[in-house]
Amino acid sequence: MVPAAAPLTAAALAELVGGRLEGDGSLVLNAVGPLDRAHGAALSFLTSPKYAEAFASSGAGAVLVPEGFQRRGGAGPAVLIVVKDPQRAMAQALTALFPPAPRVGRIDPTARLGRGVRFGCEVVIGPFVEVGDGAVLGDRVTLGPGAVIEPGVQVGSDSELDARVMCYRGTVIGARVRIKAGAVIGGTGFGFVSDRRGHHPIPHVGGCRIGDDVQIGANSCIDRGSIDDTTIGAGTKLDNLVHIGHNAHLGERCLVMGGVVVAGTARIGNDVILAGHSAVGGHFTVGDRARIGAMAGVISEVPAGADFSGFPARPHREFLRAQAALYRLAPIVDKLEAVAEERS
Questions:
Q1: Of 249, 252, 247, 181, which Cα lies nearest the Cα of 214?
Q2: Quick check: pTM over 0.85?
Q3: What residues does each domain of the chain span?
């Protein structure tokens, strides 16, 4: 369990999440935890009927449950908060129970600020940070230890860059962006002209533009464009270890899971989901609201709203049929071998 920083009564929490309270509203919720480990006055949540057994034996003080949930024989915690979406309600509850610490702007004495740097109010600049000439930091920007902001980079208000984040020249970061530790933004892309003498790098003179409310995971890399900008649309979330190639364009509100690779000049629409370790080849387009399955390899155009999986990626139902046919081959081969042995 995790102790809450700002305990709330069950009644206050029900009002906050727009839920219906069943039980003692005066119960003060002072911790959170999963159903099987929560006890005392801790808050937990139930997302699926498959956890009904864990609910019945849970010692939690109160539980967020979905509409239509039915107790079995009165078992389980006495206080329920009935909501439409327990997971969403739990996110709201966590925000209230664990408010951020009061913010105090400060610049560590070990930080190095270039000429003409502009920054807003309540900026936090950590130890050994380097901010290049002419960089612009908006209000309440946080730069973690060892972060490097090259000359001319712009970082929007309320954005947070964790330890050792690297932002190269030509990078523009929107408001409320979170970039986790070790990410590299706006580095030179992987582009070469080859001949008999070897591989000669193509100059990358484009930039890298990150929209508002974007999250970029730890150790992810987003290359700058060659003669265009690489762009990440507003509200898109990237997991850890994601690579976005030069000139790629990701739309708004995309979800990009861990280990995904998007090659140069690919076009990803709005509200696209790229599952873990999938890859999109260069110059291909993935339409709005498409979903790409885990470890899929996209080497063709993907229509809007389509579900693709497998390698090479194809419509999901087609992939499942192909896999089912492949698995049926094994017993057929066994029978053929048995017939061949009988005739030999």
A1: 252
A2: yes
A3: 2-97, 124-233+241-247
Q: Is 246 a catalytic residue?
A: yes
Q: Is the Cβ–Cβ distance between 35 and 54 less than 8 Å?
A: yes
The per-residue pLDDT for range 167-218, each reduced to its tens digit, is 999 999 999 999 999 999 999 999 999 999 999 999 999 999 999 999 999 9
The catalytic residue among 204, 243, 246, 249 is: 246
Homologous superfamily (CATH) for 124-233+241-247: Hexapeptide repeat proteins (2.160.10.10)
Nearest to 127 by CA among 149, 109, 105: 109
As a whole number of Å, the end-to-end CA separation of the chain is 68
- Name the strand (E) or helix (H) holding 108: none
Instruction: Please name the fold of domain 2-97.
Output: 3.40.1390
Q: What is the pLDDT of residues 113-154, one digit of tens each?
A: 999 999 999 999 999 999 999 999 999 999 999 999 999 999
The CA–CA distances, whole Å, from 98 to 2, 91, 101, 342 equal 10, 10, 9, 73
**Residues sharing a CB contact under 8 Å with residue 30, sequence separation 6 or more, in sequence order:** 3, 4, 7, 40, 41, 42
